[in-house]
Write a structure and sequence with these properties.
alpha+beta, YaeB-like fold, 5 strands
Length: 90
């Protein structure tokens, strides 16, 4: 049964990040994005300037996303190497 009730949206920064990674990592990311749609609340909530957002590690990269409950949207903001992920603005 498909529980995926959230629509997915991608920020321009996320789309730019996606284009920079190799195809193997793109495949892993696409698979994880689909899994997130089933239960986005199981992932770690962030604090401070990222409050209201969630994150998941994929290898040494971090995927940062936001759940917009009312609109039933998951907005994917960034996908960057861990060293840079928390240093850039959303």
């Amino acid at each position: 049964m498909n529980k995926n009730i959230f629509k997915r949206k991608y920020s321009k920064k996320f789309e730019k990040d996606f284009k920079k990674i190799d195809s193997k990592l793109q495949e892993r990311l696409e698979k994880k994005i689909y899994e997130i749609g089933d239960n986005p609340y199981q992932y770690k909530s962030l604090r401070n300037i990222f409050k209201g957002m969630q994150r998941i590690h994929i290898g040494s990269y971090v995927l940062i996303f936001e759940i917009k409950e009312v609109e039933k949207i998951i907005l994917f903001h960034r996908f960057q190497h861990h060293d840079k992920a928390y240093k850039t603005k959303i």
